[in-house]
Amino acid sequence: MSIIDLLKPRPGLRVFVSAGAAGIGLAIAEAFIEAQAEVYICDVNQAAIDEATSRFPKLHAGIADVSKQAQVDQIIDDARRKLGGLDVLVNNAGIAGPTGAVEELDPAQWESTVSTNLNSQFYFLRKAVPVLKETSDCASIIAMSSVAGRLGYPFRTPYASTKWAIVGLVKSLAAELGPSNVRVNAILPGVVEGERMDRVISARADALGIPFNAMREEYLKKISLRRMVTVDDIAAMALFLASPAGSNVTGQAISVDGNVEYL
């Protein structure tokens, strides 16, 4: 097998992507579909699911609130039935959480952020790991963390805390699951172009009392390459991690961020 062939995911991979109907999740799902994988996505937004499945008729999909264990259990059971097993789990679901000084944060918003960003990853792992062990000979788990999982993030402590926790989860599970030939890695996106990042910038600009454009420039100044990354950059890394070229990559927290220097 040539080096070029190693970089291509094996055709027929069975892939599950949480929060896969928009943004990074949809870009990852689309990339795997182009690589001839069988893909199942879940999302909490039925309209987004309908739009995604209309674009990609072969895409399997179901609705689920990933913060609810019972719904995660049901969606993985359905994915196993539809796909016949599982080779790749992409734990992608997450929310931005609140922006503000720690003493002003609403505890309910903290709990919501932890539930969606961190607890959901555990729920999927708990249910999907036995399926990966049983049905795959090339099992790969890809957890979506963030550049905020390697740097401090003032005024975004709920979000940053969950993203740091995901890195710890990945490194621990890589050691735990390695003997079962299950690889576990985290992708740490940086500042990703799109509406979601615009909302984050707007919220932080409001918290600091400065204009949106000035806040956006502040974000770019923190990036060595002085540019944002795209959802396709993240999807490309996911493909690599699931390809034969990534077969000995596990326990890693890989930044795709243009080198964000500080937050």
Automatic annotation (TrEMBL):
<dbReference type="InterPro" id="IPR036291">
    <property type="entry name" value="NAD(P)-bd_dom_sf"/>
</dbReference>
<dbReference type="Pfam" id="PF13561">
    <property type="entry name" value="adh_short_C2"/>
</dbReference>
<keyword id="KW-0560">Oxidoreductase</keyword>
<protein>
    <submittedName>
        <fullName>SDR family oxidoreductase</fullName>
    </submittedName>
</protein>
<dbReference type="InterPro" id="IPR020904">
    <property type="entry name" value="Sc_DH/Rdtase_CS"/>
</dbReference>
<dbReference type="InterPro" id="IPR002347">
    <property type="entry name" value="SDR_fam"/>
</dbReference>
<comment type="similarity">
    <text>Belongs to the short-chain dehydrogenases/reductases (SDR) family.</text>
</comment>
